[in-house]
Amino acid sequence: MNSIHTISTTPYLDQRPGTSGLRKKVKHFQQLHYLENFIQSLFDCLEGIAGKTLILGGDGRYYNQEAIQIILKIAAANKIGRVLVGHHGLFSTPAVSCVIRHRKAFGGIILSASHNPGGINGDFGVKYNTSHGGPAPESVTEAIYARSKKIDRYFILKADDIPLDTLGTHHLNETVVEVINPITDWAALMESLFDFSKIKALFDTGAFHMYFDAMNAITGPYAKEILEHRLGAGPNTVLNGDPLPDFGGGHPDPNLVYGKSLVTKMYRANAPSLGAASDGDGDRNMILGKRFFVTPSDNLAILAAHAHTIPGYRSGLAGIARSMPTSQAADRVAKALEIECFETPTGWKFFGNLLDAGKATLCGEESFGAGSNHLREKDGLWSVLFWLNILATQRQSVEAIVRKHWAKYGRNFYSRHDYENLPSDQTQQLIEDLRQQLPNLIGKQFNQHQITLADDFSYHDPVDQSITSGQGIRLCFEDGSRIIYRLSGTGTEGATLRVYLERFEPDPNQHGLETQIALSDLIQLANHLAQIKQKTHRIEPTVIT
Ligand code: G16
Question: Taking every annotated instance into account, which residue ranges of this chain make up the domain Alpha-D-phosphohexomutase alpha/beta/alpha (predicted)?
Fold first, then answer.
């Protein structure tokens, strides 16, 4: 038996999880006892965890392997029964959610800072998912934070490292550590949802090709297995397919800015029919057709409109849920289907109750996230397979499918403007100034726009009745347009201001407008009302998606 050590420690006061777990710079996590404090605080809050099963793995970013060895030894000292670890310490976020559910685990620890850059100077993160497979709700993350502010000791086993590169079973005292293939359960789930033979037939025509850019992050092996091996998509379908600790120096966020190399390929004359990418931990997706970009908000609406043609959703949707800043395109589909559309705060954790209660089947966020009740996380490759199934059935181009959708439901022009790495105090003040203006804005007219609602979004969860307030400044206009301002909860440097802009256009003759042009008066108004240029001294956003 290896000995259990009790280590004295002092609290760090900055371990409050944000939109999606605790995210800090790698070097911040490497401070003395920093990771250990957080993990012990987590175990201290999980009543009844002794003897139970946990899933553990990460997106392979720098510090992943070291962190896993530390967590395994703390888990053993806390008498966790069994830990299922991904081969090489790797696990995509959706695969963790899948394995938690499939193997009926108590919960799972995901080591990832998602779409944030990696490497020694990059970011690291820890997220806890509960037994339903989804991110822990705020009641749990707040309890962990409260505990982390008081912690004065943690327990750790003195033992050799577990060889993560070999599949099989090991022991750390009474704790069984099983190194498993993280792809198997998730791939079987995908086969149960989508018509693989129909998709395979599409690739077999020889006229349909695609690229999937794994951005040197976690999804490379998953995409190779599903797209290249099981669906016959061809050997060079997956680009940047090897997970690297620094993501090859890239920023693994699949959008028009950071996914530029794929975008460039998809805008060439010889571009394939479909282009897709996923992020650091595999839960986000970007979908492109030949010379055509599908906005994530439209993506959710289009998946919902075609769900009845997909085997896993043939019996219909219970409801749709979207985060508040996501465009209202999905609401129009929900209305046509006569099902409810829920509006939640930003962050996947808010969808969990709706999915568990059977109130929603599909969920999505404007930040390149979509998923369904198959898991309790968003799932990048699931979205790609959904599109492949639609394309295999419709035998039309991505662009044709989207344009047909707009013609039927109208187009919600939509864009997000991010101002990254701003001074925190000034940015908080900008939001506070807007908050103060809210009562005076209702009823005000700006050019053709009259404000009908101005508030700070608050969510009443219809399942557990909890209330979450302060979730973003909303300005809604008479014609359905919206401007939303909120601060990011996932950054690790300064503050990021996000401005979300949306305008509905029913006239098909106007659907060809360029998005920033279609939104130009709202963009000006958003700047004017928040005095963004004056207060941030930025002439333009860092990232426009
Ligand atoms: C951002 C996005 C959210 C998303 C969150 C976590 O949060 O805006 O929609 O839920 O990232 O995504 P992931 O799990 O892929 O990191 P924020 O607070 O920075 O706006």
Answer: 15-153, 205-288, 298-409
Q: Which of left, alpha, beta for 491 (phi over 0: left; psi -120 to 50: alpha)?
A: beta
Q: Name, in order, each residue with C-beta under 8 angstroms of 440's C-beta and a sequence gap of 6 or more.
A: none
- Nearest residue CA, atom 20 of ligand 1? 488
CATH class (in words) of the domain with range 4-182? alpha beta
Residue with tokens 């929900």: 334
Q: What number does the ligand 1 atom closest to the CA of 20 have?
A: 6
Exactly one of 41, 92, 114, 383 is catalytic; name it: 114
Residue nearest to atom 17 of ligand 1 (CA): 488
The pLDDT of residue 332 is 97
- Of 312, 300, 276, 317, the C-alpha closest to 371 is 300
For ligand 1, the distance from its centroid to the CA atom of residue 232, given in whole angstroms, is: 33
Pocket probe for ligand 1: among 367, 379, 484, 487, the residue whose CB has the most ligand atoms within 8 Å is: 367
Express each pLDDT in 220-239 by its tens digit. 999 999 999 999 999 999 99
CA-nearest residue for atom 16, ligand 1, is: 114
Q: How far apart are alpha carbons 509 and 263 in whole angstroms?
A: 26
Q: CB–CB of 263/225 below 8 Å?
A: no
Specify whether 114 is catalytic.
Answer: yes
The model's pTM is 0.94
> Which residues of the chain does CATH 3.40.120.10 include?
4-182, 186-406
Report the range of poorest mean pLDDT among 70-79, 81-90, 252-261, 489-498: 489-498
In DSSP terms, 503 is beta-bridged to 413
End-to-end Cα separation, the chain, in angstroms: 54
- Which residues have CB under 6 Å of ligand 1? 19-20, 114-115, 279, 283-284, 323, 346-348, 365, 367, 369, 488-490, 498
**Is the Cα dihedral 302, 374, 253, 263 positive or negative?**
negative
Tell me: pLDDT of 1 over 90.
no
C-alpha–C-alpha distance, residues 526 and 484, integer Å: 8
Taking only the tens place, the pLDDT of each residue in 62-121 is 999 999 999 999 999 999 999 999 999 999 999 999 999 999 999 999 999 999 999 999
- Angle of helix 398-409 relative to helix 296-306, nearest 10 degrees? 80
Q: What's the gap in Å between 26 CA and the centre of ligand 1? A: 19
Specify the domain boundaries for CATH 3.30.310.50 within the chain: 411-544
Distance between CA atoms of 341 and 71, rounded to whole angstroms? Answer: 39
- Give backbone dihedrals phi and psi of 267, rounded to 5 degrees, phi first: -100, 5
Q: Strand 362-365 and strand 319-323: pairing? A: parallel
Asked if the model's pLDDT at residue 399 lies above 90, the reply is yes
Main-chain phi, psi angles of 99, to 5 degrees: -70, -35
Q: Which residues pair with 287 in a beta bridge?
A: 276, 294
CATH 3.30.310.50 fits domain 411-544: yes
CATH number of 186-406: 3.40.120.10
